[in-house]
Amino acid sequence: MGESAVGLGLLLLLALTTSFCSGANVTYDHRALVIDGRRRLLISGSIHYPRSTPEMWPDLIQKSKEGGLDVIETYVFWNLHEPVRGQYDFEGRNDLVKFVKVVQDAGLLVHLRIGPYACAEWSYGGFPLWLHFIPGIVFRSDNEPFKAEMKRFTAKIVDLMKQENLYASQGGPIILSQVENEYGNVQSAYGSSAKPYINWAAAMATSLDTGVPWVMCQQNDAPDPIINTCNGFYCDQFTPNSNKKPKMWTENWSGWFSSFGDPLPYRPVEDLAFAVARFFQLGGTFQNYYMYHGGTNFGRSAGGPFITTTYDYDAPIDEYGLLRQPKWGHLRDVHKAIKLCEAAILATDPTTSYPSPNLEVTVYKTGSGRCAAAFLANIGTKSDATVNFNGNSYTVPAWSVSILPDCKNVVLNTAKINAISTVPKFVRYSSKERAEAKDGFQSGWSWIVEPVGISNKNAFTKPGLQEQINTTADQSDYLWYSLSAAINGNETFIKDGSKTLLHIDSLGHALFVFVNGKLVGSGKGRNSDQKVSIDIPLSIQPGNTKIDLLSMTVGLRNYGAFFDTVGAGVTGPVQLKSSQNGLLIDLSSQQWTYQIGMQGEDSKLYHGDSSIWVTQPTLPTNQPLVWYKTTFDAPTGSNPVALDFTGMGKGQAWVNGQSIGRYWPTNIASGGSCTDSCNYRGPYKADKCLTNCGKPTQHIYHVPRSWLKPSGNILVLFEEAGGDPTKLSFVARETRSVCSHVSESHPLPVEMWSLDDEIRNRTRSTLSLTCPSPDQVISKIKFASFGTPRGACGSFRHGECRSKRALSVVRKACVGSRSCSIGVSSTTLGEACGVSRSLAVEASCA
Questions:
Q1: What is the tens place of the pLDDT at every residue in 700-722?
Q2: pLDDT score, position 256
Q3: In principle, which of 203, 408, 561, 690 could form an S-S bond with 263, CB 3.0–4.6 Å?
Q4: From CA 441, how far away is CA 725, in angstroms rounded?
């Protein structure tokens, strides 16, 4: 890279990280977004403002910036901001304006995905449920009632941003907006109303005059001037629908979401880095990680159904706001390497040659035809390959990309990680701290038993079984179905004493069955099939038999054609059956009494300030439908805090009146397909790399520190299934070990000594360690080996060759400091045999 190219790269980087002092003209051409006449290569990451807290936002944004991001991307959640038609909420975690301004203050840009359909594993896809009850409405189609509401809300958000001068055209950070979302995936189901709807949505959005481009992801027929973009694990082969539009990737899935009852997916960083490098190699200029920080589905916001409360997504910044290493660090290095190629990438189109079926050599040339930057890709999944290029020979590992910003020197290969690794853990507070109630529940537990069945004066009676969502309007997860069945004693099954079964079919998502006030059975659906069908043996006696069915939703469906019409609840049949004679009595069409929600919800017990809590005689445990309350002091320290719900069944939890979400530690992940080590080579899919088989899908739940007071905090639980709250414990999210494993570099030949300093520095091998917390220092070197060490962080071991000096050198350089750097060479570390040598270190932070 020549001196002028480096200078241009620095100017571009400065422009990217500086807020616009006055209005900027944002357009696009076939290569990139164009801001004030200059093309931009942009690296973006998704952070959804309501999945964290305002107190977390500045740190999340700063870590994103340090990770090499230029843009923060977020959805706008309609049901969050307009829970009641015409009544808006932009406070606290819903403060969209504040979030955008935090991004602006950090010098980053914003992509505002208004939608207003979001998907996002968010309940009902982000639509408010009141929308469902508008007469004649059909969502996401050429339907006048829907279009009127969609335009009204979209205009509301645009006007809100304009009032605060937040669009780039006004000097703000917003350079892109999105209308609709992944409609192309379901478009065919909407038939002839689909294309007119998309054309209308595009025209509606552009008429709002934001002064910035609009995009539609997964929409191959997006009309001009809307930019169609790609979502997926790989988008290197994506082509826009016009040769006048740039190649943009709005969702590069950094991992995958988790569902109750399923193992936890993760995506190796080598594969993610490969996907990123391939995209920029083949002409991409805007790439966004979905998610960069996933966060938490607080309250009842999780969709699915069955999406977990955690939305960690194996993202570079974890649910608690800590760096996930080496994913964050390796991607930061990838971004730096790509930015070294920025001027060349933006100046021209790439040309690619194919030396063999699995090898690609992509070159960006200057106007004079000289090679300005190059990418060498090996898309094979088995073997490393040798690439002869530009007079040199390069070894490219399988499923990797080597980046050469000067067409000579490899500054990074996506399969070779030089970033630090960490081993985060959830650590229970010490016995001394628990004894001092610093993480304990100092007042003991009080409780209120929720009545079984109908207890609310607002209950109502209707013939037949009512669908749940239309009945509750999602005011609560809970709907009671209550019936008194008269048994006169003359029935055949009473006389012959045959076995009686209560058969129930439900659309889900979970169901408890009570007969004469006693829990006699339960059932739950799964992510793949939310339906519940159960047969419960009963001993029926003459007289009235009271049947109470408690149907529970676990987040509303958020994806698919006409997802808004998918129901829930006990839709039947409900029958008494004989094991000998078949159907006895069909109860489905009888008069059922209904109650929406729990008595404790109506009384707002989750605030914990009611005077009706009891403490005597004995704490009820392992029984259903119990509200529990305790008080506690905030755990000591500054580490992120969570509650370990081991010992509880299923329910909801609140801290100081704020919901931390649904808990369900008894929902165990299926087994058999998990591994802590996954071969990154080859195409990734959501079930390729799994962990946590045979364990609770989630038993740890985030409690933001900003929700806590020093003392007198109130924890309220509503336990649906039965559990023991005395087994609850606070845990801290800590990182006590940091590791790095870096290969030795070979000295540059004399003819390359004049290379740009940044490129030359990138070709040098340096091992760096940094403790994750500012108040930590490296207290101990647990392992250090230079030569041929093996294993991974937490399980390093010596190889056949190693230097005797390495441990003492690393100790001297690192112990007592928060961070340290060591040159990886025999000069520094001592001689060791082997051709391909490396330094592996594990350090303790305290």
A1: 999 999 999 999 999 999 999 99
A2: 98
A3: 690
A4: 10
Written as six digits, the tokens of 567 are 């129901």
Among 61-70, 484-493, 755-764, the minimum mean pLDDT is found in 755-764
Options 82, 180, 182, 450, the catalytic residue: 182
**Residue found by looking up tokens 């478009």 in the block:** 187
Q: How far is residue 488 from each of residues 493, 581, 584, measured CA to CA in Å? A: 11, 18, 14
Residue 105 corresponds to which tokens in the numbers above? 């203050």
182 a catalytic residue: yes
Confidence of residue 753 (pLDDT cuts 50, 70, 90): very low
**Helix, coil or strand: residue 16:** helix
For residue 429, the model assigns a pLDDT of: 76
Residue spans of alpha helices (H) in 23-95: 57-66, 78-81
For the purposes of burial, counting CB atoms within 10 Å of the CB of 646, is it exposed (0-12), middle (13-18) or buried (19 or more)? middle
Tokens 């929700």, located at residue: 707
**Average pLDDT taken over every residue of the chain:** 92
User: What does the longest C-alpha to C-alpha distance in the chain come to?
Assistant: 104
Q: Which residue among the candidates 73, 121, 180, 251 is catalytic per the annotation?
A: 251
Number of H helices, E strands in the chain: 16, 43
**Cα–Cα distance list, 721 to 30, 190, 310, 593, 803 (Å):** 57, 40, 21, 22, 59
Does residue 351 sit in helix, strand or coil?
strand
What DSSP string runs through 434-468?
HHTTSSS-TT--EEEEPPSS---TT-EEEESPPPH
The predicted-structure confidence for 213-242, as pLDDT tens digits, reads as follows: 999 999 999 999 999 999 999 999 999 999
Rounded Cα gap, residues 113 and 214, in angstroms: 9
- pLDDT for the residue 676: 79
Residue pair 296/119 in contact (Cβ under 8 Å)? The answer is: no
Helix (H, G, I), strand (E, B) or coil at 147: helix
Q: Which of 634, 564, 625 is nearest to 600 (CA)?
A: 625
Q: What are phi and psi of 390, to 5 degrees?
A: 55, 35
- To which residue do tokens 């000289």 refer? 370
- Same fold flag, 429-450+602-727 and 460-597: yes
Q: What is the DSSP letter of 269?
A: H
DSSP assignment string, 712-776: -EEEEEEESS---GGG-EEEEEEEEEEEEEEEPPPPPPGGGTTS-HHHHHHTS-EEEEE-SSTT-
Residue 255 · residue 268 · CB < 8 Å: no
Length of the chain (residues)? 846
Q: Taking each helix axis from N to C terminus, what angle separates 327-340 and 3-16, rounded to the nearest 10 degrees?
A: 130
Confidence of residue 1 (pLDDT cuts 50, 70, 90): very low
The angle at the Cα of 227, spanning 225 to 230, to the nearest 5 degrees, equals: 165
**CB neighbours of 170 closer than 8 A, spacing ≥ 6?**
23, 162, 211
* Confidence at 762, pLDDT banded by 50, 70, 90: low
Q: Report the SS3 class of residue 140.
A: coil
| Tokens standing for residue 333 | 């290095």
In sequence order, the β-bridge partners of residue 630 are 715
144 is catalytic: no
Pick the closest to residue 118 from 46, 172, 176, 199 (CA basis).
46
CATH T-level topology, domain 736-845? Jelly Rolls (2.60.120)
Please, what CATH class does the domain formed by 3-349 belong to?
A: alpha beta
Question: What top-level class would CATH report for the domain 429-450+602-727?
Answer: mainly beta
Fold exhibited by the domain 460-597 = Jelly Rolls (2.60.120)
Residue 260's pLDDT band (cuts 50, 70, 90): very high
Can you tell me the distance from the alpha carbon of 253 to that of 232, in angstroms, rounded to the nearest whole number? 6
Q: Where are the domains of the chain?
A: 3-349, 429-450+602-727, 460-597, 736-845
List the beta bridge partners of residue 71.
44, 109
